[in-house]
Amino acid sequence: MNRTKLMALMVAGMLSGSLLHAQETLTLQEAVKFALENKAEAKKAKLDLENSEYQIDEVRAGALPQVNASANVKYNAIIPSMPIDFGGETQYIKMGQPWNSTAGISVNQQIFNQSLFTGLKAAKTTREFYQINSQLTDESLIEKVANAYYDVYTTQLQLETIDNNLENTNKTKSVIEGLVTAGIARQIDLDRIIVNINNLQAQRQIVVNALELKENALKFAIGMPIETDIELPAETFNIKAEMAAATTMDLSGRTEIKVLEKQAELLELNRKSMKAAYYPSLSFGGDLGYQGFGSGIPGSNDFNWFATSGLGLNLSIPIFNGGSTKAKINQATIQIKQLEVDIEDARLGLNLANENAKAQIKNSLLTVDANRRNVQLSRDVLDDTQNNYRNGLATLTELLDAENALATAENNLNTSLLNYKIAEIQLIKANGELKSLVNE
Fold first, then answer.
1. Contact by Cβ (8 Å): 130, 207
2. How far apart are CA 147 and CA 346, in angstroms?
3. What is the Cα–Cα distance from 268 to 333, expressed in whole angstroms?
4. For a Cys-Cys bond, which of 79, 208, 305, 367 suits 416, CB 3.0-4.6 Å?
């Protein structure tokens, strides 16, 4: 094989390997959409919603005619005898035939059953509950994904800060090496800068490991295979200063409140279904069939069939059950009152979360602005200190302090950006607009 073909195969191999490990750029919108389609919670919520339709079908079936068919064949090995008195003389007569069989069909239709009617309403309300609960599950998933997403991004920024610090320190190392070679600087200065580089490299590895763990946590949060490589876009941290002026939220639009209110409807229907035990019930029934008897098996000449049929109404009137129904109704009433307390507590909690989010947004905006100015100032100080060190006007300690000050300022900025984004998510949630993250 000539050298040209060998080189072509090597290049092709490298390209195929790079394609297999190509990173997937993942925006927050894409991460949320992926989670809503693939995460277990979202899938189970959709299955609950689908299952509610079957629950409605099950209850509705009780209001439809119930049709049953039956048949049996019996062989009487010993035919019982009945004693009968004829003029003072007892006669024993066999009652029945060796073979008998029945076959028939019966129909039962509910005409009035208050419990059944209430159950139909409850089934439809259950479907509405699962619809709202599915929305709540989606919102909870969106919040979780957004927090995990920004946590990964913040760690990436920390890694960038360390890389920038390493770059600056390596430049300083090159300068010191030249100064040591020229006899202007001391060897101990070079050793100190090498120790600083080693420390930064160790810190970098710690952050790299943390970043891998957080990326795995994000992939798990959205239901993505762990082996998938992801990369976050650079424009993730957009600041929306107008959110600090957000108006008071409308609690009626919060999914958490809607779920609780729908639960209250279900509990009220449950109480009504218990009250239905006081109502009479009326149903219609009918049957059509055949009875057969004979000394031979069914189908033989010694076996005869006789038609039977009947129609009727069945009325059931509850009179007294020892107060059991009343006790159940009282228990259901207590459950409703307990839920009313939960709803009021939920409203207070949502109001608190809203006010805290708005306060955090305002504080974070101020902190982000201050940290950005501090980062710029630290860069200016580092540039001046580096220039002074080259000209013998600053010590190595001052130079290292300036580098550390810049790294600290950048980390403080990253932390304040993360705090802002977390507060932004909470405020979006408080306004009931988490779904907007899907359509940004």
1. no
2. 22
3. 8
4. 367
Burial of 2 (0-12, 13-18, 19+ CB in 10 A): exposed
Q: Write the pLDDT tens digit of every residue in 161-201.
A: 899 889 988 988 888 888 888 887 788 988 988 999 999 99
Would you mind telling me the total number of residues written for the chain in this entry? 440
Average pLDDT over residues 322-351: 93
At 72, is the secondary structure helix, strand, or coil? Answer: strand
Q: Return the SS3 of 119.
A: helix
Topology classification of domain 25-61+113-147+232-278+321-438: Outer membrane efflux proteins (OEP) (1.20.1600)
What gap in Å lies between CA 93 and CA 79, rounded to an integer? 10
**Least confidently predicted of 246-250, 261-265, 352-356:** 246-250
Where residue 183 falls (left for φ over 0; alpha for ψ -120 to 50; beta otherwise) is left
pLDDT-derived band at 248 (thresholds 50, 70, 90) equals low
Structure tokens at 247: 């108006």
Domain spans of the chain, in order of start: 25-61+113-147+232-278+321-438, 70-112+280-317
Phi and psi dihedrals of 326, rounded to 5?
-60, -40
